[in-house]
């Protein structure tokens, strides 16, 4: 049996609010230290040795993912002005290409269909123009990611952003689509992509401060140096993130400054290359709003989705800038049973995304000619199935007579529809192909309800292959959870998940508090002083799967990533007996150390999510009470797989490294593995084949813990 690495201890002692804590492994934070890198490599070697017996299974899972995937494929084209835009993927290539073709008939909004047998080296559609060949751009780089690409208003130029490290600092270049020549403009240190103004001579972009917080918006004029760019907006408050975008109407550029609890928008005239931002409504602590521009009866209206009248948000409207909450007239009044999440404005309609009782919904509001009472009709885009997840897709054109809508579930591959806004007709444009004879009717989906310790009912979504659970006998379960930031982990389809389902396990998502599945109150009841509810809900979900006969505790492997990795680390300490294995991806497990250091990436903006342990003794004690690293003890931990990335700027690799080191020291009998991707960021490796290999590694470990490493595929 290989011997696990033991990190040397170099204790550092600190005192906060009268509490003294000693950290033996803080030295692992020195990313450039050869001793740190050597330790991470030793951990990788140990993990590889301990999982060598799974090499064949990893290969089979990879082959299963690959065989079920249509490798040469085309997305449903989306129309922007005079072009249809789409993405292509190619067999044998890690990355795809972004393409476009001219619109043949400006009155026809039916997307063109490619030839079914389109060859990878031939155009998929007549007149195809390959804007970016991503495989070509990625050549020579271990990591490659496009942060965004945007075509200029005259359709001639393409600005695109590339990250070749994984730290999400992008370099922007500008390509002339006619000549295929790159402009001399090179912008570095950019967060994501750019937003064009009303013409092709300038665009806007965002940069970050030393703590990796997006804090500045700049205006760049083509042909000038980045050093000469104009600072348009700066947000000094460390709690606020800044973003920039343009309205669908193309009339305005919007700058948003938002904390976890408060927001403020600034409006610029897109046609004016010298425009100064005008504040729409000054920030008021606790009031969140988002802004959209509509035109009703020829008049400008600003749609305001806000929580000034209730926690689940109201849709209001206002005629001018600046304004205040008192000026916002309701279109959709606050309803405590409906969480309004987003609104998109079109020439004659509004599209609202909302959720009710744990289900997502798409709602259409018809617009009339009266600016004071604009809504003339209200209806839903209907899909069958309790566990169907629906949402508006890519709909960039203000004048389009259709909206793109997507639908998926745990058993149903994602489908893309066009909904005709005039006739109400719903047309299927594409069902994501799953090769190998996949049939969604071979699987059954269930909505279960667990009772948490305070009596709250927690929804669980579950999928299993029909016939696996005979006579109510328990089966293995792969349980997933997140529970933070109001992020909703709605039911979704996964090709890689079939490798678990088709070996006889069920997959379940626990929709725990801290997420947004049941509305804003669900989020509020799982953060700050209520954070323990997140962990209680997940433990209750695992135990419900046992008491309801689905499984046994030793046959549950739980998984979570990022803030979900914090969840996994917390339940490992609080209820190790409830699980047979735990997977923590890029895990936020050294929570207290991170939240005590305002110089670390993203710490200050996170105070509204977790609390400020530097200034608030109660927050310190609360975080210290659940932080996984703080609470490692001599417990009977189930086997744990921790996975992280060296270049992650959101959750630093050191959190997983320190956690595993302390587990090895304080619980020497624990079976703990650490795997660090040495050329990746928060989202893991880049390139689809490498991503499949990475997922195959994790799933092989999960199947081994579920007792299914040698199980035959039920579909074969």
From TrEMBL:
Family membership noted in the UniProt record: Belongs to the peptidase S9A family.
Domain Peptidase S9 prolyl oligopeptidase catalytic: 492-707
SUPFAM superfamilies assigned: alpha/beta-Hydrolases, Peptidase/esterase 'gauge' domain
Listed name of the protein: S9 family peptidase
Keywords: Hydrolase, Protease, Serine protease
Spans annotated as Disordered: 1-22
Record domain Peptidase S9A N-terminal: where: 10-431
Protein source organism: Nocardioides ginsengisoli
């Amino acid at each position: 049996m290989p011997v696990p690495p033991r990190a040397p201890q170099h204790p550092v002692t600190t005192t906060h609010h009268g509490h003294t804590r000693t950290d033996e492994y803080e030295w692992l934070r020195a990313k450039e230290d050869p001793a740190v890198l050597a330790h991470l490599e030793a951990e990788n070697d140990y993990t590889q040795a301990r999982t060598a017996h799974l090499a064949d299974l990893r290969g089979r899972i990879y082959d299963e993912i690959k065989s079920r995937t249509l490798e040469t494929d085309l997305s449903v084209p989306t129309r922007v002005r005079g072009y249809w835009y789409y993405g292509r993927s190619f067999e044998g290539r890690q990355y795809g290409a972004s393409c476009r073709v001219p619109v043949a008939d400006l009155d026809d909004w039916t997307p063109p269909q490619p030839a079914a047998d389109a060859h990878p080296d031939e155009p998929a559609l007549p007149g195809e123009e390959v804007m970016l060949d991503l495989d070509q751009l990625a050549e020579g780089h271990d990591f490659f990611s496009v942060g965004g690409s945007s075509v200029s208003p005259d359709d001639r130029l393409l600005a695109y952003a590339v990250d070749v490290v994984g730290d999400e600092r992008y370099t922007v270049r500008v390509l002339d689509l006619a000549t295929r020549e790159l402009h001399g403009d090179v912008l570095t240190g950019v967060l994501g992509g750019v937003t064009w103004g009303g013409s092709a001579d300038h665009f806007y972009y965002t940069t970050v401060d030393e703590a990796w917080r997006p804090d500045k918006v700049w205006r760049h004029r083509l042909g000038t140096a980045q050093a000469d760019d104009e600072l348009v907006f700066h947000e000094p408050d460390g709690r606020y993130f800044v973003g920039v975008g343009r309205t669908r109407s193309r009339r305005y550029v919007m700058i948003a400054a938002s904390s976890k609890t408060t927001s403020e928008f600034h409006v610029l005239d897109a046609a004016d290359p010298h425009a100064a931002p005008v504040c729409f409504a000054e920030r008021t602590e606790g009031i969140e709003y988002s802004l959209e521009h509509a035109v009703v009866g020829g008049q400008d209206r600003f749609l305001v989705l806000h929580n000034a009248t209730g926690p689940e948000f109201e849709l209001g409207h206002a005629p001018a800038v600046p304004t205040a909450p008192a000026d916002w007239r309701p279109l959709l009044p606050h309803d405590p049973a409906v969480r309004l999440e987003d609104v998109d404005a079109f020439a004659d309609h509004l599209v609202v995304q909302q959720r009710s009782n744990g289900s997502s919904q798409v709602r259409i509001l018809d617009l009339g000619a009266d600016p004071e009472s604009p809504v003339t009709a209200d209806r839903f885009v209907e899909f069958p199935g309790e566990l169907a997840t629906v949402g508006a897709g890519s709909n960039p054109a203000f004048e389009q007579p259709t909206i793109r809508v997507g639908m998926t579930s745990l058993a149903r591959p994602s489908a893309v529809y066009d909904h005709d806004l005039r006739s109400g007709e719903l047309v299927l444009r594409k069902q994501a192909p799953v090769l190998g004879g996949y049939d969604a009717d071979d699987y059954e989906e269930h909505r279960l309800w667990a009772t948490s310790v305070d009596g709250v009912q927690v929804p669980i979504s579950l999928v299993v292959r029909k016939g696996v659970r005979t006579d109510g006998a328990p089966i293995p379960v792969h349980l997933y959870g997140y529970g933070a930031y109001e992020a909703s982990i709605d039911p979704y389809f996964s090709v890689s998940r079939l490798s678990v389902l088709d070996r006889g396990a069920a997959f379940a998502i626990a929709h725990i508090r801290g997420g947004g599945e049941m509305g804003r109150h669900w989020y509020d009841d799982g953060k700050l002083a209520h954070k323990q509810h997140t962990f209680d809900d997940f433990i209750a979900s695992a135990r419900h799967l046992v008491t309801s006969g689905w499984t046994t505790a030793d046959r549950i492997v739980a998984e979570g990533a990022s803030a979900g990795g914090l969840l996994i680390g917390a339940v490992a300490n609080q209820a190790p007996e409830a699980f047979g294995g735990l997977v923590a991806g890029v895990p936020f497990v050294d929570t207290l150390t991170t939240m005590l250091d305002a110089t670390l990436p993203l710490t200050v903006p996170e105070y509204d999510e977790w609390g400020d342990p530097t200034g608030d003794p109660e927050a310190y004690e609360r975080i210290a009470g659940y932080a996984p690293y703080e609470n490692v003890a001599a417990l009977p931990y189930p086997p744990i797989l921790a996975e992280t990335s060296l270049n992650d700027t959101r959750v630093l690799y050191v959190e997983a490294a320190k956690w595993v080191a302390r587990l090895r020291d304080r619980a020497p009998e624990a079976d703990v593995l650490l795997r660090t991707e040495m050329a990746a960021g928060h989202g893991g490796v880049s390139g689809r084949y490498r991503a499949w290999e990475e997922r195959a590694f994790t799933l092989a470990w999960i199947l081994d813990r579920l007792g299914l490493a040698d199980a035959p595929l039920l579909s074969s």
